[in-house]
Amino acid sequence: MTRDTTAGLSLPLMEAFYTVQGEGFHAGKPAYFVRIGGCDVGCHWCDVKESWNPEMHPVTPVDDIVKNAIEYSETVIVTGGEPLMWNMIPLTNKLRDKNIKIHLETSGVYTFTGVWDWVCLSPKKRKQATPIAYEKADELKVIVYNGSDFDFAELQAENVSKECKLYLQPEWSRQEKIIPKIVDFVLKNPKWNISLQTHKFMRIP
User: Fold this and answer.
1) Do 129 and 110 touch, CB atoms closer than 8 A?
2) What is the domain-level CATH number for residue 22?
3) DSSP 3-state assignment of 136?
4) Structural domain tally of the chain?
């Protein structure tokens, strides 16, 4: 990657598209998604493994990303991969200059950069999220693959603010086995909510 990517003036852009948010607190709302390449967290169930290698995605000037985004929506969701591998300050500053609301989806394992209107933290067992990621989280979303993930979720919830929204989301390939367990858990622990990947049910991006 180039010096521009280090500074955050250009980013490895995997894809960008206008669709409906399918998950979590803002599910059902339209937004422009910016998917940034690069991630070394390595979740075995990741459904966008093609995002992991940043070298596979074109280095794109932030100005171009912003120019395209503002044509579609007043809300931009920056996801990955892991966006915080890169300096997010130029991207968020330029979007804010255009009065765009900016959401971040992150595992929280890298240095926190950028100014965000909403932060969805999805921590992973393989790498611990940073303290500031927990502090900034508006939404905690834990992917449930097996029974031990409920204990992991409770531990993660201890690190976020009382105002943070708590979500459990079944891993897509195991939803038939996991959803009944999540429902049972949420009924016993009503501070938690259920997040489903509704965009996959609707067969939209």
Assistant:
1) no
2) 3.20.20.70
3) helix
4) 1
